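The data are set out underneath:

___
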Amino acid sequence: MLSNISRIIERYYLRSAPVFIIGIFRIFYGIVAFQEIIFLLYFNHLIFDPIPYIDVEFPMIPLFLSLWAIVAGCVIVGYRTQVAIIANYIFWIVFVNFTPMQRDFDGGFDLFMIGVGFFLIFMPIGRAVSIDNLLYKLQFKYQNSPVLPERCSVLSLLFPVLICLGFLYFDSVIHKLFAPHWLNGLGGWLPSSMPYYMSALDLSWMLNQEILQKFIGYLILVFQFTFIFLFYRRSFRPIFLLVGAGLHIGITISFNIYPFGLGMLSVYILMVPFSWWAALANRFIYQTPQLVVFYDGDCPLCNRTATIINHFDLLQAVAFKDLQTQIDSAPQLQKYDQQVLLADLYAVDLQGRVYEGVDTYIQVFQKMRYLAVFAWLMRAPGIYHIAKALYRHIADNRARNVCDEFCLPAVSIKTYPVDLYSRIFENYAVQKPKQFRFRMAKIFIILVILQLNSSIHYGFLYRLYDLSSVENPVVNQLRLLSNSVLMLSTTFLGITPHALYLHDHFQGYEDLLAITYIDMQGYERWLPFVNQQGRMLAPNWGRVHSMWANIAVTPNINPERLSKFIMKVTAFWGNKVGLDLNHAQFIIKHKKINSPVQWRINLRKDNLSGEWITVGIATWKNKHYQLDLQAIK
């Protein structure tokens, strides 16, 4: 088996893929991470404080979250990518395992982001669409800029999809086989009809189509079961891409767990067929440059300007030519004296119009299209004159050979930064190809074993037997060993059971709780948390939704756990709405809903309607919390 796997690995290693795909994947992953860090900063007192704003146990949390946000920003723009992605991976592990973020505020995708982040460490994420790439090119004259690697091994795209999506889907479908509403084809319909889980978008027109909902439900089961076996085949890849991306877009817009949907969608970028990227490039990239800019090839500042603009010119709309060697290609400039031309930045468009100075930059931004807003701003009265004066100051200093820090030549070893991808997939794989493919095969087998340990342990054994009650010492030792292995694989690789939204979650889920408060004028108002319909309001989505809908309010409500989270929500949002927690009163509301395993028309509408009744009062006096709550029947 090891030999067969090693041959498959060799076959895919020898295939190449455009490296810019990984750069785009890095950007989307970084954006998902960055928005989640901003979310954590906003809710840091709710998530990390034992008593929000009152008992602040982790005062340094905002600082570390800010550092993490900077790291995520570096991942997005591609600056120091190898260091940044490792730091991001460490931040995810630390926050998930050493704060309440995972225990009480599970975002549903933290471990997924850890797993994807692990594979990003070994991918050539800085070789395209990155600041690292630009910094490397700035070491050279524009016309001598080296051609950077534009291809990478298909393995670097295939492995993350196989492990992070394929294993996840296969594990998830195992758990779904034990859920009646999933077997009835209602896996997507039921949570979309539950007030705590639905988004603000009213999709009743879809939910009331029984055949459509069952088709979607069974499609998910078939898709998840077959994905790992067929996604890598070229003929099936577009099908799995479109279906999978469509399903996760549906999750993003229909549920209030949008970070999970967006995180999964980012990996689908690696599945886009190469021919689609080529077709997209042919559609948008100019075949002929729309503007030719002439620059002084001996001026370091001019070379840097040309390199920077060329780096961000995604549509290849601007071409740069050296005035001293290629002036003959522009007859429109023949009437100018060479010293005049060298003192400014001149450009010629397709119509033969000549631009100079600030007007050249305006045309550059306009032709690049996605930066056209800067062209419009620079044309504005006042801004145009300031930009012209600034440009004149820099150009005249350069003309007088007064070189400031912007025009000094860079001093650096002219080698591209070595990352883990180049060390493993290029150097090691070339020097020891046989050893490389066998070790990759062993790594793959280890990952399969780790995933099987999780899937069999929780997908079958725990559902069929109560392992904790088994008195056989061998079975108990195996259970402990399995748990230990799972703890390590979960912590560092994100391999975990994906038993989401199953029957043991929704069976008996018939109670909703909401909170109102008495304002300074004595009026009862709804806390901006759960509204009158029972929906959770933005921004209380993602991990805050998980805290309330998956831990505090469940089919079997734990009074102590519920009291804890009512305390946290009232303290956090009470502070946000301006209440004085030395003297504040909150009212706990309750209403009934239905969670059937058979399809029903208008279930979403019925669950959003219904009467609320008062079941308790939470009071804050001198910043001490007390809850008087009736038994919920």
In short: Residues 400-413 have pLDDT under 50 and may be disordered. The two ends are 57 Å apart (CA to CA).
